[in-house]
């Protein structure tokens, strides 16, 4: 099916562990110059250095439009605290936050906390979906106009517009309302890698954007069809689920493929899909997959961020813009606006309004 929607592009700005955010600020600004939808910052408990969410909170004041999506694991963390931290990033960035949901499956990481052993992957991804569900409910627990801030009466909030949350998952329970007012986007964007079978169900049910790793356009299209079919089974609009092909990119030092006749199709190994070639080759692949309707866009992880992201923005993206295949500016101020996603209403507000009028 030929593509009918806008092309979406995102990039990873991680790399070797760092204890200073200056390089992340520079890379995020570079991605912003290319009008990319968002940048991600990978993280895990095994990785030294500041956590990704804190780093992107530092990046936020030094950027204006680019979406900011840190990896935040749902294993060994408290769902209430996670939802509060992501909501805070949305406030700090004025509506540009997302959350890359991941799990922690190693015994080494479990020992860092000492509260439980590493669980089976199926249970971890079930928990991840429940955490995403609980987070959305907490973000909805404040209506948009719940804050009064009336100094004369001393009223900060309208209590009728705060809603009780009592969520029970398989490994945790959460009670609300949240301690952070409803984020500017209503709900920050949820991103999940839905390549694996176990992650696909929570991705279809809870994600706004899903990354998939595929070795061909046909494989990517099949993954997208499967995800959208599952989303529809949960009562979601399948067209509202954005599916991006995830590629690890090595653009080398040349404008075109480093070896004559090199197949520019990404090579897949395990969870990773690699692309090796030049900026022009990458633009051709992106154009072909998107025009063919295989995916809604691409998430690109540079092998060497300082080198390859510059070549992505000033080479690949510039060529796509020249061909009128990708925008030259951000269409709005929030990440949801970049992605063409609507701002969801609080699930609790209609119940309050209908109760008052019945």
If you had to describe this structure to a student in words, what would you say it looks like?
The protein has 358 residues and is an alpha/beta fold. It has helices spanning 22-33, 52-59, 79-92, 107-113, 121-140, 197-206, 217-233, 279-291, 305-322, 335-339, 349-357; strands at residues 8-12, 38-41, 67-73, 98-102, 147-150, 155-157, 165-168, 173-176, 189-193, 209-212, 242-250, 267-269, 272-276, 297-302. Helix 6 links the parallel strand 9 (189-193) and strand 10 (209-212). Mean pLDDT is 91; it is low at 256-264.
Provide a brief overview of the structure.
The chain has helices spanning 22-33, 52-59, 79-92, 107-113, 121-140, 197-206, 217-233, 279-291, 305-322, 335-339, 349-357; strands spanning 8-12, 38-41, 67-73, 98-102, 147-150, 155-157, 165-168, 173-176, 189-193, 209-212, 242-250, 267-269, 272-276, 297-302. With 358 residues, it is of the alpha/beta class. Helix 6 packs across helix 7 and helix 8 crosses helix 9 (305-322).
Task: Spell out the blueprint of helices and strands.
Layout: E1 8-12, H1 22-33, E2 38-41, H2 52-59, E3 67-73, H3 79-92, E4 98-102, H4 107-113, H5 121-140, E5 147-150, E6 155-157, E7 165-168, E8 173-176, E9 189-193, H6 197-206, E10 209-212, H7 217-233, E11 242-250, E12 267-269, E13 272-276, H8 279-291, E14 297-302, H9 305-322, H10 335-339, H11 349-357
Parallel strand pairs: 1-2, 1-14, 2-3, 3-4, 4-9, 9-10, 10-11, 11-13, 11-14
Antiparallel strand pairs: 5-6, 7-8, 12-13
Helix pairs in contact: 1-2, 1-9, 3-5, 5-6, 6-7, 8-9
């Amino acid at each position: 099916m030929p593509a009918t929607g806008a092309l979406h592009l995102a990039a990873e700005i991680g790399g070797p562990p760092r204890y200073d955010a200056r390089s992340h600020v520079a890379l995020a600004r570079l991605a912003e110059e290319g009008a990319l939808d968002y940048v991600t910052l990978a993280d895990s408990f095994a990785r030294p250095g500041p956590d990704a969410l804190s780093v992107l909170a530092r990046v936020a004041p030094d950027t204006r439009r680019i979406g900011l999506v840190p990896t935040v694991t749902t294993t060994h963390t408290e769902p209430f605290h996670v939802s509060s931290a992501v909501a805070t990033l949305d406030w700090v960035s004025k509506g540009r936050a997302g959350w890359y949901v991941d799990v922690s499956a190693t015994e080494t990481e479990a020992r860092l906390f000492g509260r439980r052993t590493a669980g089976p992957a199926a249970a971890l991804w079930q928990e991840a979906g429940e955490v995403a569900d609980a987070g959305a409910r907490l973000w909805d627990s404040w209506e948009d106009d719940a804050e009064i801030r009336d100094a004369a009466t001393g009223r900060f909030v309208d209590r009728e517009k705060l809603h009780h949350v009592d969520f029970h998952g398989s490994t945790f329970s959460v009670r609300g309302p949240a301690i952070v007012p409803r984020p500017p986007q209503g709900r920050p964007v949820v991103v999940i890698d839905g390549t694996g079978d176990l992650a696909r169900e929570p991705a279809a049910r809870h994600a706004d954007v899903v990354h998939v790793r595929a070795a061909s356009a046909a494989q990517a299209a099949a993954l997208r069809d499967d995800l959208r079919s599952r989303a529809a089974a949960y009562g979601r609009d399948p067209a509202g689920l954005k599916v991006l092909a995830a590629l690890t990119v090595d653009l080398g030092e040349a404008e075109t493929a480093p070896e004559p006749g090199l197949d520019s199709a990404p090579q897949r190994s395990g969870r990773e899909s690699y692309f090796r070639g030049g900026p022009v080759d990458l633009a051709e692949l992106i154009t072909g997959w998107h025009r063919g309707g295989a995916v809604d866009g691409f998430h690109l992880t540079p092998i060497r961020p300082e080198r390859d992201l510059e070549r992505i923005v000033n080479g690949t993206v510039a060529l796509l813009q020249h061909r009128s295949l990708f925008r030259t500016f951000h269409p709005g101020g929030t990440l949801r606006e970049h992605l063409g996603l609507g701002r969801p209403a609080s699930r609790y507000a209609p119940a309050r309004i209908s109760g008052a009028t019945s």
